Amino acid sequence: MLPIDDSPIVRDGKSLILAMDHGLEHGPVDFEEVPEKLDPSTVFETATHDAVTAMAVQKGIAEGYYPSYEDDVNLLAKLNGTSNLWMGEPDSPVNWSVDYAAEIGADAVGFTVYSGSNHEVEMFEEFREVQEQARDYDLPVVMWSYPRGQGLKNDTKPSTISYATRIALELGADIAKVKYPGSAEAMQHACKAAGDMNVVMSGGSKTDDYEFLSTVEAAVNAGCCGLAVGRNVWQREDPTRILDALEKVIYEEETADAALEATE
Ligand SMILES: O=P(O)(O)OC[C@H]1O[C@](O)(COP(=O)(O)O)[C@@H](O)[C@@H]1O
């Protein structure tokens, strides 16, 4: 793994990655309640908040919108991604290369690996190629480490999430992004399984302020180095307010209660 503390996508050892690849992964349905967010510029504006260390997007969004924000936002190039229309075993085609991401100005690359899927072998091989090319550019590699597939009944059980962080470490990721395994103890074990590699929690579908922030608080206390989040930020009416609160919970290690009180 790279010594990533000096990377622009890390601030004081922590990261807050704002993800906006949902138009591909889930489809426009994710924007139904916030139709103005269909315009990617609105989410790039949100990503200019100091708490955000990188914005994760697919190629077309990076090409079209990142040039206007390159001075204010760090780009995490999400290199693979699939649509919700795909009905086969979990898989994720590689949509752009590390070379092209570096040319556009990426500060890091991201890659989904569905361990346990029938496509695991090809996905590991594709990850190998991406990881080694990223080393040529000194770009940190964030693995969306999502064990998933017909053999896996529960993709958030503690042993699965610990396996997910460990797979990311073994395959050479610099940051693993994993789902919350349901308890602080389980997250602590998953962070231990990752050795010295940074682990960030995945945001998930939108929940209320307190529920969301207290899960982030638990994850940070368990050893997580932050969050990679989409809907729980940009589906909110006031994304700036939740980012103000996240800044307190993640970087200042305040409680969810204190962060909410301070941002009311
Ligand atoms: O595969 P899933 O569980 O539908 O989630 C995929 C989405 O989750 C993310 O990893 C994080 O976004 P959310 O915080 O909205 O869950 C996105 O990058 C991606 O589009």
UniProtKB/TrEMBL annotation:
Assigned EC number: 4.1.2.13
UniProt xrefs under SMART domains: DeoC
Gene3D superfamilies associated with the record: Aldolase class I
Molecular functions (GO terms): fructose-bisphosphate aldolase activity
Cleaved signal peptide residues: none
Residues at the active site: 146, 177
InterPro entries found in the cross-reference section: Aldolase_TIM (IPR013785), DeoC/FbaB/LacD_aldolase (IPR002915), DeoC/FbaB_aldolase (IPR050456), FbaB-like (IPR041720)
EC category name: lyase
Source domain of life: Archaea
Family as reported in the entry's similarity comment: Belongs to the DeoC/FbaB aldolase family.
Protein name according to UniProt: fructose-bisphosphate aldolase
